[in-house]
Amino acid sequence: DFVMTQSPDSLAVSLGERATINCKSSQSLLSSSNNKNYLAWYQQKPGQSPKLLIYWASTRASAVPDRFSGSGSATDFTLTISTLQAEDVAVYYCQQYYSSPPTFGPGTKVDFK
Amino acid sequence: QVQLQESGPRLVKPSQTLSLTCTVSGGSISGNSNHWSWARQPAGKGLEWIGRISGSGTADYNPSLESRVIISIDTSKNQFSLKMSSVTAADTALYFCAKELAGPLGWFDPWGQGTLVTVSS
Question: Is B49 on the interface with A (CB under 8 A)?
């Protein structure tokens, strides 16, 4: 299986400041056939199901605010929240879909400082 | 838009079979291009993919659970189901169903709200 790791485990950010979450894959998620990275990001608020934020490593899902952005390639990826809002407090997960079974990172908890 | 809702017993005894159903509304479940998955999340922990089924009935599973899991589909009811046999306390978790986009291996959107299943005597 592809093993996904995330760092940090948690971070505290002031309102309006930037939050950066890292995700690393044990193997490359970059396809040579279409030059796409097979990585998605999700947000999970307490008591809720995960919500898709990003797919293909950098494509925002429908209705996702543009303060959320994804970057990176191959084995190293980043989710950035440019200006943290109150409603962004959540756990964020990365997920690879390059190889079955699809696997998730352990999550990064984002909270207020 | 498509919505998913899990249902089924919340309490299962050890060694018995966990059975859950996901009802899809707002769109058809059938067709080769549609893929539907189950995932789970133990309390305070991360997400684990259990398996998927296509709208035409082709299923595949996480090798770590494959010996105990069956996923089936009922297109007449717009539902798909999960059966997990020989459950133990380690199977206690929040179980989600989700649509898998760009499948059969892709990202998950949307998700059901989840249903907590507890394995206990």
Answer: yes
Q: Which residue in A8, A20, A23, A39 sits closest to A88, CA to CA? A: A20
| Cα angle, residue A61 at apex, residues A80 and B94 outer, rounded to 5° | 85
Per-residue pLDDT of chain B (121 residues; tens, 9 = 90+): 999 999 999 999 999 999 999 999 999 999 888 999 999 999 999 999 999 999 999 999 999 999 999 999 999 999 999 999 999 999 999 999 999 998 789 999 999 999 999 999 9
Beta bridge partners of B52: B37, B60
Q: For residue A90, list chain B residues with Cβ-Cβ distance below 8 A.
A: none
Q: Which of A49, A98, A99 sits opposite B96 (nearest CB)?
A: A49
The alpha carbon of residue B110 is apart from the nearest alpha carbon of chain A, in Å, by 7
